[in-house]
């Protein structure tokens, strides 16, 4: 008998584990050295989860057979995803051994229907049930069937394999192969983002990034409980915020407008002893490094930097959405260029080997929130042969982080609405939910 949604309790019975290898493995193993930007991103697990209605006239065993066979073919193109990530004894840095060790696929059956899931509370919803973690496999997939016949698929990648752009291309290729279509991306695995000789960088990077130890990461200053939440943001709200951000006559993007709104709300949920707070944005360097975007459009790996802005509490309280959006725009513009990314690659070169992170992620410098935009990430189009999803988004299994975090994705409705996955301290969650823009995700919002 199913548990009521008010308790959020359900079990997943795991029925099978299998290792899927590439359909056309490499003739011999090869080692793939990580780029400097790969080293900066670290080894954190990144998980995407998708939910699908009850596939009509398709049994679960047929779905599993199709997913595994199409995955095997996909791994022939994305062969590092079927490898192993090991520590090189000479450099003391991780590298990928492309040996076709395989991807781990886990099958499970949940004792609940999709309609009764608590989609809002990701703490109760995912950990230990819908996300399987095995450090021996840089790619892990869990396919879970529900009592209503619906299905969820969670994909967990080691961040050393790539960033959101890389993972999005992998998932699209897999879905195209599953539908017997030609793949639209021929992946580039060269990892050719090399430092200049001699390396040189702007001194400001010493304030934005730090070399750190695993102990500093483990003991990062998180004094408050961080909640994992999932929200729906309607297209009408997004458009309204963009109109407010453009009031001064400047053209502002939807993400810049949304960021300004979140930042203004955030200051109402900060301890009064703080006079300033920060906001950060993950920025993709494709199209900024090596000139034209098409030269790196199929690059698989990490090409990420972080833009950081700081403002006083008074400025954020008194400023309009338009004023704050201008600060956001100016801060992001400082890193959306080739010079910044070349400097960052060189900064990392000067601090190798060892762990490196952005200061804001380590929780240094007061309260902050980082926003990642996935406006191009595949959601509605991720059809593996049994229909499109009702939900597709990202989450993290990381239990400790020194900063608030938001990840924006297009809604599976494909109508301009967004799904926002967030890690928030309780006061900020309450402040955001006090307005109508952040709607706690629910089965009714997903039209289940």
From TrEMBL:
Molecular function terms from GO: acyltransferase activity, transferring groups other than amino-acyl groups
Superkingdom of this protein's organism: Eukaryota
**Matches recorded under InterPro entries:** CAT-like_dom_sf (IPR023213), Plant_Fungal_Acyltransferase (IPR050317)
Sorted UniProt keywords = Transferase
Q: Which family does it belong to?
A: Belongs to the plant acyltransferase family.
Supply the name of the protein.
Transferase family protein
Organism encoding this protein:
Populus alba (White poplar)
């Amino acid at each position: 008998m199913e548990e009521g949604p008010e308790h959020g309790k359900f079990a997943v019975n795991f029925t099978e584990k299998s290792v899927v290898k590439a359909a056309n493995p490499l003739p011999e193993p090869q080692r793939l050295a990580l780029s400097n930007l790969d080293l900066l991103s670290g080894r954190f697990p990144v998980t995407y989860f998708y939910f699908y209605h009850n596939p009509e006239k398709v049994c679960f065993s047929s779905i599993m057979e199709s997913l595994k066979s199409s995955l095997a073919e996909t791994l022939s193109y994305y062969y590092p995803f079927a490898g192993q990530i090991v520590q090189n004894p000479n450099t003391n840095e991780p590298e990928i051994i492309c040996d076709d060790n395989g991807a781990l696929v886990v099958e499970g059956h949940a004792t609940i229907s999709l309609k009764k899931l608590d989609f809002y509370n990701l703490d109760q919803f995912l950990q230990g049930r819908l996300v399987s973690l095995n450090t021996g496999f840089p790619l892990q997939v869990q396919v879970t069937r529900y009592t209503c016949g619906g299905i969820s698929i969670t994909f967990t990648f080691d961040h050393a394999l790539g960033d959101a752009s890389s993972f999005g291309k992998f998932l699209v290729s897999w879905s195209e192969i599953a539908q017997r279509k030609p793949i639209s991306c021929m992946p580039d695995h060269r990892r050719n983002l090399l430092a200049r000789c001699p390396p040189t960088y702007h001194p400001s990077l010493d304030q934005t990034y730090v070399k750190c130890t695993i102990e500093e990461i483990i003991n990062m200053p998180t004094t408050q409980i961080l909640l994992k939440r999932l929200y729906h943001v309607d297209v009408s709200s997004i458009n309204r915020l963009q109109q407010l951000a453009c009031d001064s006559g400047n053209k502002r993007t939807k993400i810049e407008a949304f960021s300004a709104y979140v930042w203004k709300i955030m200051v109402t949920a900060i301890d009064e002893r703080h006079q300033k707070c920060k906001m950060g944005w993950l920025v993709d360097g494709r199209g900024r490094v090596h000139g034209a975007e098409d030269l790196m459009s199929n690059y698989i790996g990490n090409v990420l930097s972080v833009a950081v802005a700081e403002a006083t509490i008074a400025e954020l309280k008194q400023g309009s959405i338009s004023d704050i959006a201008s600060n956001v725009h100016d801060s992001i513009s400082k890193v959306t260029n080739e010079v910044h990314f070349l400097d960052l690659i060189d900064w990392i070169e000067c601090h190798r080997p060892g762990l490196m992170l952005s200061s804001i992620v380590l929780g240094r410098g007061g309260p902050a929130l980082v926003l990642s935009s996935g406006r191009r990430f595949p959601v509605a189009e991720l059809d593996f042969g049994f229909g499109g999803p009702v939900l597709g988004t990202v989450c993290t299994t990381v239990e400790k982080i020194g900063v608030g975090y938001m990840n924006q994705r297009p809604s599976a409705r494909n109508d301009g609405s967004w799904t926002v996955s967030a890690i928030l301290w309780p006061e900020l969650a309450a402040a955001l939910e006090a307005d109508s823009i952040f709607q706690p995700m629910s089965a009714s919002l997903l039209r289940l």
